[in-house]
Specification:
Elements lengths: L1 H6 L19 H65 L2 H25 L1
């Protein structure tokens, strides 16, 4: 019975033929396949490296742009605050308040007139 078990083909191996010898493995073929796989992997790594350095450069340029915008927005905020403070001083006097309302009304009327002419 043990002789019959030894002659059975392996369950997960390719079927044996009389000309094949499983004791020898084509090492050169496997090594060439590994070399091709390593070369392909090396190309992919190089492509990923170039992509990530491009992304890094873009992130740095965007960061510089955001820093510049933050500085300019800070300046705008300060000038807007100064303008609002001056406007608050002007609005405290009733005579100045009427002049501002008249100027604002004139601007609105001119805008409406512009829209009417544009039609």
């Amino acid at each position: 019975m043990s002789l019959e078990l030894d002659r059975r083909p392996p369950l997960f191996a390719p079927p044996l033929s009389s000309s094949q010898d499983h004791s020898r493995v084509d090492l050169e073929g496997l090594e060439a396949e590994n070399d091709r796989s390593i070369a392909a992997l090396s190309e992919r790594v190089g492509a990923l490296r170039s992509i990530t350095s491009g992304i890094h450069g873009e992130v740095e340029s965007q960061q510089r742009l955001l820093d510049k915008m933050a500085l300019s927005m800070g300046g705008v905020r300060l000038s807007l605050r100064a303008t609002a403070d001056k406007m608050a001083k002007v609005m405290t006097k009733p005579h100045n308040r009427r002049v501002i309302y008249l100027a604002g009304g004139a601007v609105v009327l001119l805008f409406l007139f512009y829209l009417w002419l544009k039609r």
